[in-house]
Write a structure and sequence with these properties.
With 159 residues, the chain is mostly helical. Helix content is 48%, strand content 8%. It contains 7 helices and 3 strands; from the N terminus they run αααβββαααα. It has a 3-stranded mixed beta sheet with strand order 1-3-2. Strand 2 and strand 3 form a beta hairpin. It is globular. The mean pLDDT is 86.
């Protein structure tokens, strides 16, 4: 990881919109994400395959809950939900952000493969930080799930 922490568009808005976070959570999550970055290279799909994981499309979403992917470590499997990928592709297009959705999702899941013991309160934040840094994104991957109205109304300091 670089010596400086990247500034991601939308990170502050995502952190404010989510569950309460402690001031030290960001530093702790970057520490775990940085450790994972030292042991991985893009593209995430190649990295997962090198580590013996198979990637399979499978419906995961249930009514009222969109799921993009799931890692089954004991089976060496990453499941990708086609509906979840389509949703992410649409959100990326509406916001003018680079894709492809599949690579973003796999980068996030790669973090969970590399750091399965990451403490639950930090796991999603660290996975988003990892994916953003691995893919050299300007936007914070977790912010893509903010409602369009929240994304568009972000104050300048949250970008």
């Amino acid at each position: 990881m670089q010596d400086r922490i990247p500034s991601f568009e939308g990170m502050k808005a995502w952190m404010q919109a989510g569950r309460r976070r402690q001031p030290e959570d960001l530093a702790r999550a970057w520490s775990v994400a940085g450790r994972a970055l030292k042991s991985a290279e893009a593209p995430a799909e190649v990295e997962l395959l090198k580590r013996g994981f198979r990637i399979r499309l499978q419906a995961l979403s249930i009514p009222g809950a969109l799921v993009r992917a799931r890692v089954l470590p004991l089976q060496g499997l990453v499941l990708l939900d086609p509906e979840g990928m389509a949703d992410l592709s649409g959100r990326l297009a509406r916001r003018g952000l680079p894709g492809p959705a599949r690579e973003r999702i796999l980068a996030h899941e790669l973090f969970h493969v590399l750091e399965p013991a990451c403490p639950e309160p930090l796991a999603e934040l660290a996975a988003h930080l990892f994916a953003g840094a691995l893919l050299n994104l300007r936007d914070f991957p977790g912010a893509i799930d903010l409602p369009d109205a929240v994304w568009e109304a972000r104050p300048a300091e949250t970008r």
